[in-house]
């Protein structure tokens, strides 16, 4: 009986942890090794949004809002309408994903009505994948900006003035869907040479093609003093060494159905072919910046004749010159002159236009938090004293 009581006591102690029993060992089984979880981090910075990283994968979420007040006051002889408005000019959300150093994906959505085309509203601005496995040959597929003129390719959030030149507004090539071959550092020269070659749909943002034509585009760029932020206007950092970027581009849009090549009215009487040329430069040094660009759009035929209507091509050329200076940190003054001229025989509503304006800007967080204001004189036609005054103020916040 004593022996029985002793055995029961030992078993009870083993059950409640009071007695350690030797582990059971099976020599034929090896305990599995669990994989180590990847290091996951979350970071947030001005202008870089919120970034999630886990192993080889990273996802960046960014946003930007531009709140604008604008007034247009025409002279008595002008036919331009008077405008007084306060609006959200742009409201954007971007998702940028990266897998290793080779694959990237960009999706940008826009929610302002002025960011959408009236006849085909669509929030999708960018949606593209890029493979950068080779230094001299990256491949980008999807919807993106056509690599043509510099100021159009430069983000609207990085502009020196409140918005782009009237020349760019008329003669630019907007976003399109296609395939681009590109390199930002051709031959490994530190960003001295870059290029882009592309084949795109030719009808603009995510349009269903109803014609057989395509858009062919090529751009080459040289930065003699090496790579720098050539897609950011102004020299807010007051660079100690001079920086210069010179670019040229050409495009041919075959059988497009859009009046301004990739944007504007959609033709109903057929299609036509446009040829485009561009040349631009950007110089920065010690707070001074100089930006200039020339653009040309040539139509192979002036109009499309229908049974009851005539649809006009819009062909012309233009240029602008823009300079700025940063006298003290976070403050900049700038000025711009631009001129836009139609070719003879083009759309009768396409008039000779000019712009002359000055701007001031306060940049407490560079372009990520800035307050800008500009004033422009905008004559239409041959007389310089007939036109309208444009006064604007804009606050931008980008995270």
Please state how the strands of the largest beta sheet are arranged side by side. 3-4-5-6-7-8-9-10-11-12-13-16-17-18-20-21
- CATH H level, superfamily name: Porin
Number of domains: 1
The number of helical segments is: 3
Instruction: Sum up the overall morphology in one term.
Output: globular
- The CATH topology name reads Porin
Derived from helix and strand composition plus strand pairing, the structural class reads: mainly beta
Q: How would you name the oligomeric state of the polypeptide chains in this document?
A: single chain
Q: Span between N and C termini?
A: 80 Å
Please give a structural write-up.
The protein is mainly beta and about 400 residues long. The chain has one domain: Porin, CATH 2.40.160. About 5% of the residues lie in helices and about 50% in strands. The protein contains three helices and 21 strands. It has helices at about 1-15, 150-155, 165-170, and strands at about 40-45, 50-55, 55-75, 85-100, 105-110, 125-135, 135-145, 175-185, 195-200, 215-220, 245-255, 270-285, 290-300, 305, 310, 315-330, 330-340, 355-360, 365, 370-380, 385-399. Strands 3-4-5-6-7-8-9-10-11-12-13-16-17-18-20-21 form a 16-stranded antiparallel beta barrel. Strand 20 and strand 21 (about 385-399) form a beta hairpin. It is globular, with a radius of gyration of 29 Å. The N and C termini lie far apart (about 80 Å). The model is unreliable at about 1-25 (pLDDT under 50).
């Amino acid at each position: 009986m004593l022996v029985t009581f002793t055995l029961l006591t030992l078993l009870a102690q083993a059950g409640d942890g009071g007695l350690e029993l030797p582990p059971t060992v099976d020599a034929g089984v090896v305990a599995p090794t669990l994989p180590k979880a990847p290091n996951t981090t979350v970071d947030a910075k001005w202008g870089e949004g919120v970034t999630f990283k886990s192993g080889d994968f990273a996802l960046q979420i960014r946003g930007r809002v531009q709140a604008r007040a604008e007034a247009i006051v025409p002279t008595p002889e002008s036919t331009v309408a008077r405008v007084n408005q306060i609006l959200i000019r742009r409201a954007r959300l971007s998702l940028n994903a990266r897998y290793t150093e080779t694959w990237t994906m960009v999706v940008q959505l826009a929610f302002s009505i002025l960011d959408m085309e009236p006849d085909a509203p669509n929030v999708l601005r960018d949606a593209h994948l890029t493979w950068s496995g080779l230094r001299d040959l990256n491949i980008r597929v999807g919807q993106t900006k056509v690599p043509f003129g510099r100021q159009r390719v430069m983000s609207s959030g990085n502009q020196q003035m409140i918005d782009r030149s009237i020349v760019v507004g008329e003669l630019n090539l907007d976003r399109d869907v296609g395939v681009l071959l590109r390199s930002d550092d051709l031959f490994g020269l530190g960003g001295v040479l870059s290029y882009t070659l592309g084949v795109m749909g030719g009808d603009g943002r995510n349009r269903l093609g109803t014609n057989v034509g395509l858009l062919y585009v090529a751009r080459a760029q040289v930065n003699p003093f090496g790579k720098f932020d050539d897609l950011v206007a102004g020299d807010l950092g007051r660079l100690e060494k001079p920086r210069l970027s010179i670019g040229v581009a050409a495009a041919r849009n075959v059988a497009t159905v859009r009046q301004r090549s990739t944007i504007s009215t959609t033709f109903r009487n057929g299609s036509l072919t446009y040829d485009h040329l561009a040349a631009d430069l950007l110089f920065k040094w010690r707070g001074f910046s100089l930006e200039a660009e020339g653009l040309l759009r040539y139509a192979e035929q002036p109009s499309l004749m229908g049974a009851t209507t005539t649809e006009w091509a819009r062909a012309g050329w233009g240029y602008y010159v823009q300079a700025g200076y940063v006298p003290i940190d976070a403050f900049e003054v700038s000025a711009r002159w631009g001129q836009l001229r139609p070719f003879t025989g083009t759309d009768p509503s396409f008039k000779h236009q000019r712009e002359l304006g000055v701007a001031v800007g306060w940049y407490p967080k560079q372009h990520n938090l800035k307050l800008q204001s500009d004033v422009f004189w905008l004559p239409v036609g041959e007389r310089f004293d007939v036109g309208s005054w444009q006064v604007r103020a804009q606050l931008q916040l980008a995270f």
